[in-house]
Amino acid sequence: MQLVVADAGPLIALAVAKVLPLALKQFDFYVPQAVMDECVADMYSPGAQAIFEASKQGGFTLIPDSAIQALDSAYAMGLGSGEVAVLSYAHAHKQVALIDERRARRVAKQLGVAVVGSGAVLVALKNANAIGSIQPALTAWQAHGYFLAPELKQQLLAAAGELI
Length: 164
Prior knowledge:
The protein has ten helices and five strands. It has 164 residues and is α/β, with parallel strands linked by helices. It has a single domain (2-159), classed as Rossmann fold (3-Layer(aba) Sandwich), CATH 3.40.50. The chain has a five-stranded parallel β-sheet with strand order 3-2-1-4-5. α8 packs parallel to α10. The longest helix has 13 residues, at 81-93. The mean pLDDT is 93.
């Protein structure tokens, strides 16, 4: 089981696509407290309830703020507290960061932190036969306002063996 240090965006995306419980069985999720706080700040926001329930049921390891080392301010500029916590922990512990946001992915590259995105998790779920298709998740993301570049969507569908 691959360990990933998860940011709020991917957690919310997986929750709104209703695949978070399946992803938690395929990956070992580590979630910084700053990310958890962001996810459940408004329990009526998309995905918040599912993420809260997953936390209550021990679906992932919660990383306390005290375990997060400060990230150099040159790297942290323009990132949210959750992204900074994910990158800092992943960098310090040589782990993979689960991040979708473009700026955070650029910083991860500068730090030498390996990155996967929500789409890669969907493809992994499909390849593990945990889901039959990634298309319903992609549709759910679009319905919730997530932008998915057409090229990326095609790459994900191809990787999942779903191109027509």
